[in-house]
Amino acid sequence: MTPYLVLAAVLFVLGLHGLFVCRHPLRKILALNVLTTAVFLLLVTVARLAEPLDPVPHAMVLTGIVVTVSTTAVALALAARLAAFGRGTGGKRRTDGS
Amino acid sequence: MIDASIGATLPASAATALLGGALAAPWLALALLGVPITRSWAMRLMPWAALPALLAALLVPSGAVLSGSGPPTEVGFGMDPVARAFLLPAALLWGLAGWFADRWIAGAERRALFAGFWLAAMAGNLGLILAQDLLAFYTCFALMTFAAYGLVIHEGTDRALRAGRLYLAMMVVGETCLFTAVALAAVSAVGPRLEFAGMAGTPLAMALFAAGFGMKLGVLGLHGWLPVAHPVAPVPASAVLGGAMIKAGLLGWWRVASPESAELTAWGLPLVGLGLAAAFYGIFMGLPERDPKTVLAWSSISQMGLATLLAGVAVLEPRAGPVAWTGLAVLVLHHGLAKGALFLGVGVMATAGGSSRRLAWVILWWPALALAGAPGTSGALAKTALDLAVAQTVHGSWIGPALSLGAVATTLLMARFLYLAWTIQPDPRPEGERGIWEAWGVLIVLLLGVPWFWSVERIVAQAFSLDAIAAALWPPALGLLLAGVAWRLWPRLPRRPGWPARVPGTRPRGRAFPALPLALSRLEQRLHRWPVVGRTVMIVTLLLVAALWRANA
Amino acid sequence: MNGGDIGAVILAVLPLAAAIGAFVRPGAGPTLTLGTGLLTLGAALAVARQALETGSWRQELGGWGAPLGIGWRLDGLSACMLLLTALVVGAAAVYRAAEKPEKPPSEADRYFWPLWLFLWGGLNALFLAADLFNLYVTLEFVSLAAVGLIALAGGPALAAAWRYFLATLLGSSIYLLGVALLYGQYGVLDLEQMAGVLSSGPTTVLAAALATLGLLLKGAVFPLHFWLPAAHGRAPATVSAVLSGVVVAGAFYLMVRLWFGPFAVLLDGGPALVLGGLGAAAILWGGTQALLQRRLKMLIAYSTVSQLGYGMLVFPLVGSGVLAERAWRGALLLVLAHGLAKAALFLAAGCIVRARGHDRIGRLGGPQNGPAWAWLAFALASASLIGLPPTGGFAGKWWLLQSALAAQAWIWVAVILSGTVLTAAYLFRALAGPLTPAVPPVAVSRPPTALAMIALALALGAWALGLLSAPFGRLLAYPLGGA
Fold it and tell me: Of A17, B550, C369, C398, most Cβ neighbours within 10 A?
C-alpha cells in the first residue's frame, strides 16, 4: 500500500504548489481539487489497510466528495463574477486577488 | 483631622444611604443626560451632583461601608479618615467648579458632551476616594483618567488635540503600570478582597504603583503631561484637574504604601529628594511661561513635590507617619481650594471688564499669597504642618530651610502669575458673568475659612504662634521684594521670556522615523502575496512539526 | 431529554430549516431570521443553564453512537460560544433588518438571508460537534456561507472573498489531511475516544501539526492572517461583525478543543511555546498594522488579528500549570468579550460609514449629529478591547495577566501589556477621528438611531460580561477539569 500513500503525499504537495504559484483562478481551483483528492486517496488507502475492511473512511470520502462538489461550484461562480468585475473595471484589477 | 466627632448622631442606615448617594449622584445625572427629554435639565446638575459627596464628607462617620461581591473579586466603598481628608476638598471643588462650568460652557457647542465627561470624571474621582479596596480604586481611577481626556480636548483646537494625545499616551502607560501592579496584588491575595496594604514587601509591585500614581501626580520626571494638558482645558476643567484629580495619585500612593510598616524605609530619602527637586524645578520652569494657566500647572508640579516630600518623610521614619499624614491632609485641602480658586480666577479675569476686573485681580492676591504660605492664609497652616512633619526626621535641619527657600520661590512664581493674569485680554460676556463670580466668590470665602475649622487644633495654634508667623512672614516678603526688583530692573522680561521652554507635545507635526511605517506596511503587503503565503505556510508547518517532534518523539 | 438536549436540537436544526424557508420565500427572510434568533437565544440559554448544573454531557442523535452516528458534546465552553453566536449573529440580523438599503434590492440580496441562516446553523453545529470529521463538515459549512456573504457585496469585495475562499478551503483540506492521518493511526474520530488512545509518534506528530496548521489558517493567526483584513474590511458591516466576532473565534475554539482534548499529551514544552509565540507575534504585528491603517474598518479588521492573539496565549500559560485555571478562564473570556466588542465596533463603523459615506479616519471630523450614538458605542466597545475595568475584556486580561505574573513568564507579561498599549493607541486614534477639525466637504446624513442602538447594546454586552465574569468564570471552568 505504500505506493498509494506516496502518491497521496505527492498529489498533496503538487496541489499546494499549484495553489501558491499559479495565477489563473481556474488553475487555483484545480489545485484545490487535487489537494482534496489526495486526502481522499489517503482515506481510501486507510480503509483498505484496516483489518477487516473499514467502511467509515468510505463514508467520509463520500461526504467529502459532496462537500468538494459544492465548494467547486462556489469557486467557479466566484471566479466567474471576479472575471466579470475585472472586465468591468477595464482589467485594471488583478483577478487573482494578490 | 476632626474625624472622631463626625456623625456620632447619624443613624447607620442614613450614613449608608448618604454614602451610596455620594457615589450614585454623578451616575444619576449621567443617566439623565443620556435621555433626550431630560438632557437640558441634566446639564444643570453639574454643580449639584457633588452635593451628596459633600454631605457625606461632613456627616458620615468613619467606618460606614458599602460592599458588594463585584466581579472578579469583592469590592467595597466606605468612609475613613483618609477618604474624608480627600473627599471634602474634592466635593467642594467639583461642586463649585461645576457651578462655574455651568455658566462658563453656556452657549458653547457640545455642551452635553462636556457635561458627560465632567460627570464621568467626577464619578471616578469621588468613587476612588471612597474605594476601600484596590480593584474598586483602580476601576474608578481608570474612569476618571479617561473621562478627563474628554475635558482636556474639549476646545477641539489643534493644540488641545495634541495635548490630549500626550495626556493619553502618558496615562495609558500609567494605567498599564497600575493594572500590572493590581494583578500582582491579586496573585498574592488571600482574602476575597484586594486590600490596599500588603504589597509593601514586593518591590516590583511598589515600583509599578509608584510609576502609575506618580504619573497622575506629576512627580518629577513623570510630569510631562501636566503643563501641557492643564492650559488647554476649559477653565473649570483645569481647576478640577489641578485641584482634585491629580490628588488621586497621592491618595493611591498613601493607600498602598501603608506608612505604619517599616518595609519602605529605603524609599524615604529618594522620595524626599525627588519632592524637593520638583518643588524648585516646577518654579524654575514656570517663571518664563506666558500663559497664566501654564504657570499654575507648573506651580502644581512644585506643590505636588511637597506632597511627594511628605510621602517620603512618612516612610522614612515610621514615627513621623501620623504627623506627616496630618500635614498631607492639610496640604491637600489647602492646595485643592487655593489652586481651584486661582484657575477659576483666570476665568474671571478673562471675562470681567472694567472695575469688576480690578476687584477680581485684588481678590486673586489672596489664593496666590495662600499658595506662597503667607501668614494668616491656609498656606501658612500647610507650611506649619509640613515643618512639624519634617522636624520629626533626622533630616529636618536641612529640609526646613529648603522649604522656606521654596516659599520664596513660590512667591516669585505667584507674582509672575498675578502679572500675567493682569495682562489677560478680557473678553467680557455679560450673559454668563454673574454665575461665574458667585462660584468663585464662594470658593474664596471657603478658602478663607474651611482649612482653619477643619484642621487639628495643635497645628492651628502652632500656626498662630508668634514664631511661626515670623517664620512664615519673611519668605513671601522676600519673594515680593525680589519680584518688585525684578519688575523694576527688567520690565520687559515678562513679555519675552529669556529662554523659551520647549513643551513636549507642541512640536510641529512630523515623524521621528518617517520610513518605518512605510516599511512595515510594505512588509505586510508582501505577506499577502500568494507565493510568500506558500513559504510562510511551510515555515509554520516546519515550526510546528519541529516543536512537536522535539517534545514528543 | 433535558432542557439542554432540546436546546441543542433547536440550535442545530432550526437555522437550517429557516434557511430553506428563506430561500423558498425570499420575502419572509427577515421574519424567519428574527424568529430563529429569539428561539436560538432561548435554546443557548437553556444549554448554558444545563452546563452550569451538570458540567458536560453527551448527546447521541437518534440513539446512534460513534462511529457512524453523530454525537454531540456539550459543556460550559460550547454553551458560551453558542450564547456568543446567538447574541452577535442575532444582533447583526436585527441591524440588517432595520437598515433601509441604500440602493434598490438586487438579485444578490435574495440570497442574503438563506446564507446568513446557513452560517448560523453551521456555527451552532460547530460548537456542538464532538468528532473530528463532523467538525470538518461544519467548518466547510461556515466557510462557504461566509464566503458567499462577503461576495454578495460585489465589487472590490469579490477579490477579498476569493482570497478568503482559497485560504479557508486550504485550511480545511490541510485539517482534513490531519484527521485522515489520525484516523489511519487510531481508527477513531470521536474527540473523547481519541483522547483515550492518542500517544506520541511520527504520524501523530505530523497529524497534529497539520490539523493545527489548517486551523491557524482559518483563524488568521499571524503570519497566516493574509486574507482577514481585506475580507473583514470590505464586507458589509453586518457580515464583518459576525465574521470577526464569531467565525474566527470558531477556529480558535476548535484549536482549544483539540489541544486541551486529544492533543493534550503533546502540548508540553515546544508546541505550547510555538502556538503562544504565534499569538504574541499576532498581538504585536496586528496591533502595529492597525495603528498604520487609514480606514476605520481596516483598523478594526487588523485589531481582530491582534486580539485573537490573546486567545493563543492560553496554550503556554495553561501549559505552564501556574494558576492555569485563571489563564484558561481569562483567555476564553477575552475571546468572548472580543466577540461582542468587535461586533459592536463593526456595527458602529457601519453607522458611521452610512452617515458620512466613507470611513477614512482623518476625514471624520465635523458635526457628529448623525452618528453620535455610534461613536458612543465605539467608545464603550473600545474600553472592553483595551481592557478597562469593569468590562469583560478587563476581567479576561486580568486573569490572563495574573497567570503570567505568577508563572514569572515575563515575556508573556510584556506581550500582554504592550498589546494593551497598542490597542489603546490604535483605538484612541480611531476615536480621535470625530474630534479632528472638519475637512470640507462634510456630507452628513442621519442613519436610523436604532442601528447605533444595536451596536450600543452589543458594547454594553461586553461590559455586562465583565460584571458577570463570576458566573461565566464558573461556566468556563468545567472543560479543564475534564481534560
Answer: C398
Q: Which residues form the domain of A8?
A: 2-87
B545/C205 touch (CB, cutoff 8 Å), yes or no: yes
SS (HEC) of B313-371: HHHHCHHHHHHHHHHHHHHHHHHHHHHHHHHHHHHHHHHCCHHHHHHHHHHHHHHHHHH
> For residue C145, what is the nearest residue in chain A, using CA coordinates?
A74
ipTM of the complex: 0.90
> Exposed, middle or buried: residue C43 (CB in 10 Å: 0-12, 13-18, 19+)?
buried
B458 φ/ψ angles, rounded to the nearest 5 degrees: -60, -45
The answer to whether position A54 is within a domain reads yes
Sign for the pseudo-dihedral over CA of B165, B169, B170, B171: positive
- What CATH number does the domain containing A33 carry? 1.10.287.3510
If 0-12 CB within 10 Å is exposed, 13-18 middle and 19+ buried, where does residue C113 land?
Answer: buried
Chain B residue closest to C166 (CA)? Answer: B530
Let me know if residue A83 belongs to a domain: yes
A92 belongs to a structural domain: no
Residue A45 lies in a domain: yes
CA distances from C358 to A25, C363, C439 (A): 31, 9, 13
CA-to-CA dists, residue C410 to B35, C279, C393, C416, angstroms:
46, 15, 21, 10
**Cross-chain residue pair A19–B530, CB shorter than 8 Å:** yes
Q: Which residues sit opposite B65 in a β-bridge?
A: B78
Would you give per-residue pLDDT tens digits along chain C (483 residues)? Answer: 677 788 888 888 999 999 999 888 888 888 888 999 999 999 999 998 888 888 888 888 777 776 667 888 888 899 999 999 999 999 999 998 888 666 666 677 788 899 999 999 999 999 999 889 889 999 999 999 999 999 888 888 888 999 999 999 999 999 999 999 999 888 888 888 888 888 888 889 999 999 999 999 999 998 899 999 988 888 889 999 999 999 999 999 999 999 988 888 888 878 899 999 999 999 999 999 999 998 899 999 999 999 999 999 999 998 887 788 888 999 999 999 999 999 999 999 998 888 888 888 878 876 665 678 888 899 999 999 998 888 999 999 989 999 999 888 899 999 999 999 999 999 988 888 777 766 666 666 777 788 889 999 999 999 999 888 888 888 887 555 443
> Cβ–Cβ of A67/C173 closer than 8 Å?
no
Contact B243, B339 (CB under 8 A): yes
Q: Which residues of C touch A81 (CB under 8 A)?
A: 151, 154, 158
Number of domain units in chain A:
1
B262-318: pLDDT as tens digits: 677 778 888 888 998 999 999 888 888 888 889 999 999 999 998 888 888 888 877
Q: Does C210 touch chain B (CB under 8 A)?
A: yes
Question: Residues near C402 by Cβ (< 8 Å), separated by ≥ 6?
Answer: B183, B186, B187, C323, C326, C330
> Which A residues 39-68 touch C at CB under 8 Å?
39, 42-43, 45-46, 49-50, 54, 56-57, 59-60, 63-64, 67
Q: SS3 sequence, B133-171?
A: CHHHHHHHHHHHHHHHHHHHCCCCCHHHHHHHHHHHHHH
